[in-house]
Design goal:
Radius of gyration of chain A: 14 Å
Strand order of the largest sheet of chain A: 3-2-1-4
Structural class of chain A: alpha+beta
Largest sheet of chain B: 7 strands, mixed
Structural class of chain B: alpha/beta
Number of helices of chain A: 5
Strand order of the largest sheet of chain B: 4-10-9-8-7-5-6
CATH topology of chain A: Sufe protein. Chain: A
Helix content of chain B: 25-40%
Largest interface: A-B, 24 and 22 residues
CATH architecture of chain A: Alpha-Beta Complex
Radius of gyration of chain B: 22 Å
Shape of chain B: globular
CATH architecture of the largest domain in chain B: 3-Layer(aba) Sandwich
CATH class of the largest domain in chain B: Alpha Beta
Number of strands of chain B: 17
Oligomer: heterodimer
CATH class of chain A: Alpha Beta
Chain lengths: 150, 414
């Protein structure tokens, strides 16, 4: 029982929750979006600076649970230097990871994000893990309206 | 009643009571279930489960329809349950009890029915601690009519600022609608005083009793409110059933809520004569099994005695509050003088959602989130709380288990 819990709250997740990376607004952002998880009231803003199709910088702001904060933090780290297309592929792979799809279905390497594998055993927490990614997608699609996980 | 009935000794045998609830002997993840989410929904005693099963097994027929025997049996059970609800809240007449799905539908019925009487600039007073079900229907009414919603503020402890309430009551105030007991904070509001102040100015009052009738004796005649809404599933009855009390003259004046069968006396294509109260609000085949189950829940509550329940639960809340105060970094949200057995709290650096998951893994069910009361969260500038809500089948041992689990939460996030 507790080992399943340890699998969810891995050290890396707890660390990113405590000290989120790339936290704050980004003045140079040319894309941004806001996401909302009505289930728990979590809100996140994602800021992206894109130049010539490359993600130069990503930051986030917001308050959420450990899973959602760590997910946003690790997402920002993993996106820098990627093309928009690569970012979208990574998002698909991350979604497959936390919803428990076969590893073969991952469209690209997920690297450090593998720490979120434990989420698949907690269906009600999948939305926490994917909030930042949904928001990223909205920013990349330049959606004006806030997205929700519903 | 504004205050919990306090008697010196709890006359409630919790071990025996627990035997009445089959689900309390279930396990989750191989651990004994500790169910501390009673403000969301209560578990059902065997008598309620059996009343529902019995109706479907041997008494199933439609009500108010046929001359056959089963229909008469079903009608008697259904109408008998209405009288039980009438007695629970001491309504003067069973015609004043309308069967509905719950408080949400009750408030929507009133808001729809009163709509035509509202003009632009008219005011409806609610409080800052309302459940969304006592906010959104009024906002919808405001959108239709140009009426305006006014809000009674709450102080840091989670009590209504009654001076401000009085100031809000003015010539434009057409209605007051307040919660009796807050689901998010546990505050027991001085509803009798609210009704008196409103009535001095000729203003009718709606009370959301969803979190009250299962904890304290309620007497709608003494309160003198115009409407009082309750939900079955929060008082040990099935989901999908509830009741709206309305003073007979008010119910008479309200137009029907939905049109259909059972709410009519006669129908022709030239026009329809509506049925009498309460039937004119009960279009379509009702939730007969639910109503019968709710009647059984009333019997169960009255057999334990609401004053015994209030006393036992008050003791549990005090015990849980003492435990909570010993956890460093834990803040209780809602510290009103008069509180039902709800303990809402936050823990430094730990989001309530994470608290909920870690407790769940230890077999402990609590609620985390905004509790359908986002304005309360905004008032305290927090996104959410964790909430332990206790009732008469909970024990001190269960509270100990919850606080041991909370210490585990702090370990994980240390």
């Amino acid at each position: 029982m507790m080992s399943q819990l340890d699998e969810l709250y891995q050290e890396v997740i707890l660390d990113h929750n405590k000290s989120p990376r790339n936290f704050g607004a980004l003045d140079s952002a040319n894309l941004q979006a806001e996401g909302h998880n009505p289930l728990c009231g979590d809100k996140v803003k994602v800021f992206i600076e894109i130049q010539k199709g490359l993600i130069r910088n990503v930051t986030f702001q917001g308050a959420g649970c450990a899973i959602s904060t760590a997910s946003a933090s690790l997402m920002t780290e993993s996106l820098k230097g990627k093309t928009v297309q690569e970012a979208r592929k990574l998002m698909d792979s991350f979604h497959d990871l936390v919803t428990g799809q076969d590893e073969e279905s991952y469209s690209c390497e997920i690297g450090k994000l593998a720490v979120f594998e434990g989420v698949k055993k907690y269906p009600v927490r999948v939305k926490c893990a994917t909030l930042a990614w949904h928001t990223l997608q909205a920013a990349l699609n330049q959606d004006k309206a806030p997205v929700t996980t519903e | 009643m504004d205050s919990p009935g306090v008697i010196t000794q709890a006359a409630l045998d919790v071990d025996r009571v627990r035997q009445d609830f089959p689900i309390l002997h279930e396990q989750v993840y191989g651990i004994d279930l500790v169910y501390l989410d009673n403000a969301a929904t209560t578990q059902k005693p065997r008598t309620v489960i059996e009343a529902v099963t019995n109706y479907y097994s041997v008494g199933n027929a439609n009500v108010h329809r046929a001359v056959h025997r089963l229909s008469q049996v079903a009608t008697e059970a259904y109408e008998g349950a209405r009288v039980k609800v009438q007695r629970l809240i001491n309504a003067a007449d069973s015609r004043e009890i309308v069967w509905l799905r719950g408080v949400t539908e009750g408030i929507n019925l009133i808001a729809n029915g009163l709509s035509a009487q509202f003009k632009p600039g008219d005011e409806i007073v609610v409080s800052n601690m309302e459940h969304h079900s006592n906010i959104v229907p009024w906002q919808m009414l405001c959108q239709r009519t140009g009426a305006v919603l006014r809000v009674i503020p709450i102080d840091e402890s989670g009590q209504l600022e009654m001076d401000r309430f009085e100031e809000l009551l003015g010539p434009r105030t057409k209605l007051v609608s307040v919660v009796h007991v807050s689901n998010a904070l546990g505050t027991v509001n001085p509803v009798k005083r609210i009704v008196d102040l409103a009535h001095e100015r000729g203003i009718p009052v709606v009370i959301d009793g969803a979190q009250c009738v299962q904890h304290y004796p309620v007497d709608v005649q003494e309160l003198d409110c115009e409407f009082y809404a309750i939900s079955g599933h929060k008082m040990y009855a099935p989901t999908g059933i509830g009741a709206l009390y309305g003073k007979a003259d008010w119910l008479e004046r309200l137009p029907p809520y939905q049109g259909g069968g059972d709410m009519i006396l006669s129908v022709s294509f030239e026009g329809t004569t509506y049925n009498e109260i309460p039937f004119k609000f009960e279009a379509g085949t009702p939730h007969i099994a639910g109503a019968i189950g709710m009647g059984a829940a009333v019997d169960y509550l009255l057999s334990l005695g609401l004053e015994n329940i209030a006393s036992y639960e008050h003791d549990l809340l005090e015990y849980a509050t003492e435990q909570a105060l010993q956890i460093p970094g834990l803040q209780i949200v809602g510290t009103a003088d008069k509180k039902s057995s709800v303990l809402s709290f936050t823990i430094d650096r730990v989001h309530p959602h994470d608290i909920g998951t870690i407790l769940d893994q230890q077999g402990i069910a609590i609620r985390t989130g905004h509790h359908c009361a986002q304005p309360v969260m905004d008032r305290y500038q927090i996104p959410a709380t964790a909430r332990i809500s206790l009732c008469f089948y909970n024990t001190r041992q269960e509270i100990d288990a919850a606080f041991a689990a909370l210490r585990k939460v702090q370990e994980v996030f240390s």
